[in-house]
Each structure stands twice: as structure tokens, then as C-alpha cells.
Amino acid sequence: MLEIAILGLLNESPMHGYQLRKRLSELLGAFRAFSYGSLYPSLRRLQEAGWIDEQAPLEAPPGGAGFGSRSKRGKRVYRLTAEGKEHFAELLAQVGPEAYEDEGFGTRLAFFAQTRSDIRLQILEGRKQRMTEQADGMRSSLARTRERMDRYTLQLQEHGLESADREVRWLAELIETERGTPRAGE
Hints:
It contains 7 helices and 3 strands. Helix 1 (2-12) packs across helix 2 (17-29) and helix 1 (2-12) packs across helix 4. The protein is 61% helix and 8% strand. It has helices at 2-12, 17-29, 39-48, 82-93, 102-110, 117-145, 151-179; strands at 15-16, 52-58, 75-80. It has a 3-stranded antiparallel sheet with strand order 1-3-2. It has 186 residues and is mostly helical. The protein starts with a helix and ends in a 7-residue tail after the last helix. The longest helix is centred in the last third of the chain and has 29 residues, at 117-145.
């Protein structure tokens, strides 16, 4: 999912590493932990694949990089290549389980504005089905083991079930809204 996030952000505009790192934290922070150590190796892999390239570094101001700065080196600016744009579109068109599992769903949702309506609908429906199955499993497990749980474990399990049920309702609303949205080109 980090690949989709990087390509999606660079599809919006070219960025240097620090900007990209900051935007990734904003984007992925709510959905999962983001390791800063994974950004630059990912950027190298994307460059090697030909999906991103570097623009000429921004020049440091004369006399240094600025007040209090120790670096005189320009910042590398990454941008999406034409092949990268095609690859990103292909990634957004994929609708397999990775698009609606916990780790991938949030990232995919963050780029729904760049995703075709029919693909968005398939992802939302897949996520809703997955969350409904999860809630049903939790409900069944809770019914079998309720008597053996202490009150704190019981409250934790009930909270998890309420969260899953709330997400199913939210997804149902998104699906209803999506079905009312005209498809691209209509």
C-alpha cells in the first residue's frame, strides 16, 4: 500500500522527500503505522521500475540552505513518469482482497477521488462484506464465550463488535451514495 500512497501523492504534484514523508504520515497515520525507514528504499524501487524520476535538485540559497541549516545540498524532487501514471491507474483498478482488507482499504479510500466509480463501488461492497463477516463472527464468538469472560474482556469484545457494526452501517451509506453518483463520462 505504500507504493499506491507514494504514487498517488506524486500524481497530485511533484514533492521532495520531506514533503512526501509528511504527506504520507498525514495520509497513512490514521490507518496504520508508517515507517520512515521504508520511504527512501521504496522511492529507489519505484525509480528503478521507471515509475518515478527525480527533477533537478532545488538549489540551496546562496551562502547556505537557510538560517540555522547545516545542509548546503539541494533537495531531490520526485515526480511521476508517464509509466508511473499508467501503473498507478492499474493499481487503482485492482479490486482484489488487498483493496478492502484492513491495511489496504484506508489507503485505497484516500485515493477514491482518482478511482473510477465502478471500482470504488466494488471495493466498498467487498469491504462491507468483509466487515459483515467479521461482525457476525464476533457476535457468534461472544454468544459462545460471554459467560467465561471477565467484565473488561467482555466490554472490549462488545466495543469491537460495535465498531464493526458501525463500519458496516457507514459502508452501506457510502455504497448508497456511490450508486447515486453518475459514472465517469456519463
